[in-house]
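pasting for ref
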Amino acid sequence: QAKQQADRVLIGLERRRRTMATITKDVLSTYYRAMAAQKYLGQVTGLLGEAESALKLYRRIEKEQAEPLARVLEDQRRLITIVAHLKNIQSELQQAKVQLAALCNLPLHQKVNLTTPAMSLPAMKGDIADLELMGLLRRPELREEHYQERIDVAGIKQEILKMFPAVRLLASFNLDANPYLVHETWSEAGLVASASLLKIVGTGPAGKKSAEARQELSQMRRLALAMATLVQINLSRHQYDVALEELSTASTLRGLEERLLKQLEVETLAEAEGRLALVQQKAQVVSSQLQVDMARVDAYEALGNLYYSIGVGLADDLPMESSLEEIAAAVHKGLTAMSGGQLPTLPAAEEVSGAESPKVFDDGLNPAERKAALDRVAAAGEYGRD
């Protein structure tokens, strides 16, 4: 029971590590999304004012019938589309600040100035097989299941020991004040053994089978989690590579949009058509700039998902009694390692291959003998007998 309680403590530590990894991953992406909101919200608001002013101008031109009606209505439709697009961007930016406040447990309307520079995005050039092995070794969910299997193995031992006879050792020192006794003091000792027939025949074997079924379920659950972990690692690695490509494309497109805006500012005319083109291009530039930052946020999120899928957090192995300053220092160190693409060192191959699953009793066999015995059982089809 003490060993089971110790494993339950380890399960609690793994759940704490998983929770910290989830929080830091979510805060990382939301922080840079809120930083983009802080950077572009004023520009979007000002551009909305320009677009609405141009829309009023077109409505006045429509009333005065100064230009062909079809072209004026077409330009109004384009302007309304721009206004709707800008309002969508404004709404998304405002939501990012609220989400960050919720994650950091801050008042929703508190003004926060975000000044941290953008973190570099490393090129993950490691072998995918190494990432898969690291995920199988470090993923908190898999380690939880390993500890749970050890608890279930201890449960099998408990059920076996319950069927053994109960043994009690008795000893006493006696004194009697009767003067007619030959011996007024004497000592006695004894051994009492008792057994429950019900436990030996009924509840004992049933409890043992139930505990073995729980262990088998733990093994199957861990196997399913291992397969899901491998899928997540491969998917997150692919998503991170795609996010880096999208960031590069968005940066190139932003440069083209900014050059086009400068050219339009030089060539624009005073009439309404020139104002429409200028407002439209300004909106396109802001949208392309925001797209770059959103692509960078997606890359941060994909990088965080990659580290999460292989079980590497920003503040792993922190003691329970760590102070806020110690946690902050560990997170800063973890962010530095993440921005450099650093990963923990994998154990040696012989250490991994030598790791064994929990077992009820040590059978005293060496690995070759154990494998031969398992092969004989498999050939005979005697699964689950002993």
